[in-house]
Amino acid sequence: MHDPVAWNGKRGWDVIHFPIRYRTHRRPQQSIRENGVDTIRDQDGDQTSATAVDAERQARWEEQERAAASASRDIADVPAVEVITTAAVHLMSAAAVKVGLADDPETQTDLDEARKLINALAGLITAGAPEISDMHARSLRDGLRSVQLAFREASVIPDPIGKGPGEKWTGPVT
User: What's the total number of domains in the chain?
Assistant: First the structure.
């Protein structure tokens, strides 16, 4: 099988705009190989043959395809509860960092980004709660509430009660 993305020296037309009579003049792009430049070399400095390079590229492509197929089979084996809780934990961790609950709050705090993350987290937890067990949903709600309170504390001008990030889905957090 031939790799369609492989460099063959002809990649369409190179458009050159000349202001003369408002016309666009085109010329085919010159191949780098025609100019005597080849960037693929072996360790001795000699140019490797195109067939060896193509074979190596094909082998890498096939290996990547096998890895992708394996990964898609692996994700099929993961229960939906794990996917939902993992996504929620990632959103919660990112929101905590953006609220300033990390190692370096002076450089990592970004309340605009934190608001977006908290809204997404609240929506995910609210929508996913019926699908996951109460045991999972309870701990996620507790974490969400903690991040919402940290946001309120970090805000210079706090949002009114019920108007903070995620409170559209969770109700007022005090």
Answer: 2
Q: How far apart are CA 30 and CA 64, in angstroms?
A: 31
| Contact yes or no for 122/166 (Cβ under 8 A) | yes
- Note whether 67 and 99 are same-domain residues: no
Amino acid at 120: A
| pTM for the predicted model, two decimal places | 0.59
Expressed as residue numbers, the domain containing 69 is 44-77
Percentage of the chain with pLDDT > 70?
70
Residue 14's contacts (CB-CB under 8 Å, 6 or more residues apart) are 26, 27, 28, 29
| pLDDT confidence of residue 3 | 42
Task: Answer yes or no: is pLDDT of 166 > 80.
Answer: yes
Name the phi and psi angles at 104, rounded to 5: -125, 80
Q: For residues 98 and 131, state if they share a domain.
A: yes
Domain identity same for 65 and 93: no
DSSP 107-172: HH--HHHHHHHHHHHHHHHHHHTTTS-HHHHHHHHHHHHHHHHHHHHH-SSPPPTT-STTHHHH--
Tell me which residue of 94, 106, 92, 90 sits closest to 154, measured CA to CA.
106
In contact, 92 and 144? CB cutoff 8 Å: yes
More confident call, 47 vs 168: 168
First to last CA, the chain: 63
Residue 68's pLDDT is what?
81
